[in-house]
Amino acid sequence: MAFITRFAPSPTGPLHLGHAYSAILAHDMARAARGRFLLRMEDTDLERCRPDYDALIQEDLAWLGLTWDGPIHRQSQHIPSYNSRLEALEDKGLLYPCSCTRSDIRAALSAPQEGVAFNVYPGTCRHRSMATRMPGDALRLNLAAAMDSLSAADLSFGETGPVHAGQHRVDPDRAMQQIGDVVLSRKGEDIVAYFLASAFDDSDQGVTHVIRGEDLFDFTPVQVILQHLFGLPTPVYHHHRLIRDDQGKRLAKRDDARAIQKYRAEGAKPADIRRMVGLQNP
Ligand code: GLU
Q1: Could you give the C-alpha distances from 96 to 13, 138, 149, 262, in angstroms and in order?
Q2: What is the pLDDT of residues 60-95, one digit of tens each?
Q3: Phi, psi (5° rounding) for residue 241?
Q4: Ligand 1 atom closest to Cα of residue 212
């Protein structure tokens, strides 16, 4: 079987050690399997993503000795295709408009991260029909209805990561408690949310293995559900350990002290970065 994986940063900050680990791991696994390593910029959040971070991420990856196959896929250039998926979900009766607070909805647009509270939506607007949609409303997935429309037996995914290796069946009760009705789009600003864009890109780009941080493991079911709703293949998942700081905290975008750019400026070599994240040098 072909092995196709991807590194999918959001260009909202510089590449730090945690990203470097993810990218090197995915790259090395693809090369060892004689597969493909794709680079995808998850840049749909136009307020936070910046072209200079996009360029810097590419520069750091190249400095690390990583090469990617084919052109970079920038999500901001594919908004119409995400919107057509949204329309199909609307036709299936699986979306509803939501006017709850802007900051909740704003936070829900990005990929969840360990250490940043993920608010499971209580379903306040779930009774609303799409006909009541107002300018400024977000669109949420009615997760329970989505799961009801699928055969529970189909909702499974394989995992090869060190912590959860095995076959996982989506548990509907757990999915409601941990994930709930996620935001898929913010109205009027052409912003689609991480869950939707990333799930469809993985299928559309033929990704066979999703290699990413452990903090996204619990949210995988919603992406598997979205893929199943469209009859698309679900990749195998590999959630890897997170690179932590000295206090055991996951590195985040704000940890510029761990930016690859900074290590480069201090004279580090790519082999030093591999060593710092606990990877063998090739
Ligand atoms: N853009 C996401 C992030 O930077 C990547 C998530 C994924 O690999 O699915 O956190």
Answers
A1: 32, 8, 16, 45
A2: 999 999 999 999 999 999 999 999 999 999 999 999
A3: -60, 160
A4: 8
* Biggest distance spanned by C-alpha atoms of the chain: 59
b vs e for 191-228, b when ≥16 Cβ sit within 10 Å of the residue's Cβ? bbbbbbbbbbbbbebebbbbbbbbbbbbbbbbbbbbbb
Closest CA to 24 of 75, 61, 49, 76: 61
* Rounded to 5°, angle at Cα 212 from 206 and 216: 110
Q: Is 206 helix (H, G, I), strand (E, B) or coil?
A: coil
Give this prediction's pTM: 0.93
| C-alpha 254 – ligand 1 centre gap (Å) | 16
Task: Report the nearest atom of ligand 1 relative to the CA of 213.
Answer: 8
Taking the centre of ligand 1 as the mean of its atom positions, its distance from the CA of residue 111, in whole angstroms, is: 6
Per residue in 160-212, pLDDT tens?
Answer: 999 999 999 999 999 999 999 999 998 656 678 899 999 999 999 999 999 99
* pLDDT tens column, 196-255: 999 999 999 999 999 999 999 999 999 999 999 999 999 999 999 999 877 777 666 566
- Ligand 1 binding site (Cβ under 6 Å of any ligand atom): 8-10, 42, 111, 198, 212, 216
